[in-house]
Amino acid sequence: MATGEDLRRLALALPGVVEKPHFDRAAFVVARTFVTLAADGKTANFKFAPDEQALKCEVASDAFAPVDNAWGAQGWTTARLDRLTQQEVGAALETAWRHAQPKPRKRR
Fold first, then answer.
1. 3-state class of 21 per DSSP?
2. CA distance 30 to 63
3. How confident is the model at residue 104, as a pLDDT?
4. Which of 17, 27, 39, 48 has its CA 20 to 30 A from that of 101?
5. What is the 3-state secondary structure (H, E, C) of 26-60?
6. How many CB atoms lie within 10 A of CB 6?
7. Nearest to 80 by CA among 55, 46, 52
8. What span, in angstroms and rounded, lies between the C-alpha atoms of 108 and 92?
9. What is the DSSP letter of 67?
10. One pLDDT digit (tens) per residue for the chain, 108 residues
């Protein structure tokens, strides 16, 4: 069973990650936000690609669900941390973190 503190520790261990406030949540950011943690530490919202979201929600429907709004259609996925191991949280963080990297600069 993972906790909000586990998520925070694992997220901040990834290269370039900083924590910032985001409304009533904590946001973890590289070039952009890739995960937010609820104030109570029980849930987190991860930014996955839509196909990754679909797979997570199908394989672990007790732990993952699309966010209930337009953000969910863009891949934002709520995870119940108490239904995940620290290893599963780490894997989800790494997936979302990869998508949040700075985009390469275009050559002119």
1. strand
2. 25
3. 83
4. 39
5. EEEECCCEEEEEECCCCEEEEECCHHHHHHHHHHC
6. 17
7. 46
8. 35
9. -
10. 999 999 999 999 999 999 999 999 999 999 999 999 999 999 999 999 999 999 999 999 999 999 999 999 999 999 999 999 999 999 999 999 999 999 887 877
Q: Which residue has the tokens 């936000």?
A: 33
Read off the DSSP letter of residue 85. -
Has this prediction a pTM greater than 0.90? yes
Residue 108 DSSP symbol: -
CA dihedral angle for residue 29, residue 17, residue 2, residue 66, rounded to 10 degrees: 20
Cβ atoms 16, 94 nearer than 8 A: no
Beta partners for residue 41, in sequence order: none
